[in-house]
Write a structure and sequence with these properties.
It is found in: Cytoplasm. By secondary structure, the protein is mainly β. It has no helices and 16 strands.
Length: 185
């Protein structure tokens, strides 16, 4: 058990039999009444984000999540196949479980698969990934980096806003938490 006073971003807890990851939290000490902790939690089984308030000092169960380094191999229908880099064992995850992460996954990419008591929960992406631009309007001479943005379709199907100087075939660094352009690779 862990006190809600010890919350930190990324902590995985069990509340009412559901697995949650703490996305954000705030300790509140009102002038009148008892202190409490306001938190934003992501359900690891269905991906929904909930806001929950706990009394200060309340105890919740801490969940032990296992992270295994795996390589994304390929998509097979509605399933996506990953291979454990140590045992070469292959695991399948449904598209629904990793819907957001699919925008950044490319074949042979190394990721961490999260599991809880043998149940596969999802994919933990790196902070940034390198993806190639497959379609965008050509840059025009005179366009500047601060002059605005245009849409670009990347190799995974993700559409991001990029500066005018980015062209088809360029490899970009993309922030996976926001799905946004960082720089050219």
């Amino acid at each position: 058990m862990i006190s809600v006073n010890d919350f930190r971003t990324g902590l995985t807890i069990i509340v009412d039999g559901q697995l949650y990851r703490v996305l954000d939290f705030q300790h509140v000490k009102p002038g009148k009444g008892a202190a409490f902790v306001r938190s934003k939690l992501r359900n690891l089984r269905n991906g929904s984000v909930n806001e929950k308030t706990f009394r200060a000092g309340e105890k919740v169960e801490k969940a032990q999540i296992d992270n295994r380094k795996m390589q994304y191999l390929y998509a097979q229908g509605d399933e996506h196949v990953f291979m454990d880099l140590e045992s070469y064992e292959q695991t399948e995850l449904a598209s629904a479980a990793i819907e957001y992460e699919l925008k950044f996954l490319k074949e042979n990419m190394e990721v961490h698969i999260q599991s809880y008591q043998g149940e596969m929960l999802g994919v933990e992406l790196p902070n940034t990934v390198e993806l190639e631009v497959v379609e965008t309007e050509p840059g025009i001479k005179g366009d500047t980096a601060s002059g605005g943005t245009k849409p670009a379709t990347l190799q995974t199907g993700l559409i991001v806003q990029v500066p005018f100087f980015v062209n088809q075939g360029d490899v970009l660094i993309i922030n996976t938490s926001e799905g946004s352009y960082v720089s050219r690779a």
